[in-house]
Design a protein that fits this description.
homodimer; about 280 residues; mainly beta; Cyclophilin; eight-stranded antiparallel barrel; five-stranded antiparallel beta sheet; 17 strands; globular
Amino acid sequence: MAAIRSLISSVLLLVPFAANAQDSRSEWRSLDPENTLYMELESGRVIIELAPRFAPNHIENIKTLVRENYFDQQRINRVQDNFVVQWGEPAGAKPFRKAKRTLFPEFMQPAEGLNFAPLPDADTYAPQTGFIDGFPAARNSEKGQAWAVHCYGTIGVGRDTAADSGNGAELYAVIGHAPRQLDRNVTVVGRVVQGMSLLSSLPRGTKSMGFYERRDQHIVINSIRVAADVPEAEREPLEALRTDSPRFATQLEAKRNSKDEWYKSPAGHLDICNVPLPVRRIR
Amino acid sequence: MAAIRSLISSVLLLVPFAANAQDSRSEWRSLDPENTLYMELESGRVIIELAPRFAPNHIENIKTLVRENYFDQQRINRVQDNFVVQWGEPAGAKPFRKAKRTLFPEFMQPAEGLNFAPLPDADTYAPQTGFIDGFPAARNSEKGQAWAVHCYGTIGVGRDTAADSGNGAELYAVIGHAPRQLDRNVTVVGRVVQGMSLLSSLPRGTKSMGFYERRDQHIVINSIRVAADVPEAEREPLEALRTDSPRFATQLEAKRNSKDEWYKSPAGHLDICNVPLPVRRIR
């Protein structure tokens, strides 16, 4: 077969772990079960890594909601093409117990003390981009601010017009081109590390902004659990490549200036949201 | 219902035409039926606007293939999450008649004479970005080059390692974050203007690079036709907003610095691939 070679891949979220790989184990970090969520759909499990560095209060509230079984039998009610999948119900639709209804926004954090690994590449939206503890981020050194940026797979907190109207009962995942205009406007709480395609391949809603027309089109969420609350045998042993590791630096450079002879004009640059963040299953 | 307001939308590809709108008709342009393709799937019609300004020879070859019924009963055989949907078969799998098997690459064009409407915003990958005749594009004035950039919905020509190994028999559509590393490495021939979600919501392939495991998973393409060859009653009367119109400039500025009070920190900047390119049906 005189095959026309497929395009060089852009993103590989999940890489298989070769037992004989010459990995330095220290280049990988285990996902913290206390900051990992399992969203169970009929189609499978979506795994979310939470980012308490960026949004400690919202994440505490989300975990409180999860432990109150708030999300169980809630629904994905919005799938807007090239934008977001959204789930949960507006506050009030289901009782809150200990969870808070309003939270002070966590759109940004003080940059000081954060382990920011900068990219040298120019960015359209921020003075500087890079990674903080495995998450794509941006920094404004002049203002002393840092924030998680919206990339494919980013999880954020839906809110009303008031900045403090988000509480984590309604969440979204980005399923399209990075909607960077949302940066510094919503609280980012994490990213999807496995099962992304269970969200991204859902039928698009046909109402305004991608809402489903009818309730029977909604996708039921069987449950959301904190991984730490799930029996160990049912957990996924995932590791993420450290974004401050030499291996990751090599991968960034390969993405920036590919040595693959397929590329005739290496890009020379790298967009913070055009970077694979490798995750592997260790057994 | 104490609704948490949904996120402000990022992209609206298809806008309904309000008959009483104060549109200046000249701000919209009809899609040229000679440069519009209808890809007919079981699930519906995907409409592609071709961009002869960027790739006249490849587009001529693709239209030759279309008119040889080359694509009829071909298949979508690859759906890679956050990257591309790909269809057609490698050259040789189905006979070519008049269509060429190899073409000189059309990765870039001389910038001179192209109607380039620049954006003021910095770009990670190119010295300058903007629009050329309705298509997102980039320019390197020093080198006198311009090219169509890879955004969500962009259609490009699959190729093997050799730069001239693409011929249009294998095409892809971008279904994820803009894979800008492909710019200047493949020939871009157009963009999806309707039916994008028929591609983006397809099940992801589970083999390497998103290929489907089995042939029975492939999505059959009933046919691809040039709109001009379709009876007028079966055509879609679509118009695209001119990217050099005042209305479009207003939309860009609203995206860059939203006046909506939902936004607490207007972005101030705009990424060439984070821009809706409105298309409407006129009757």
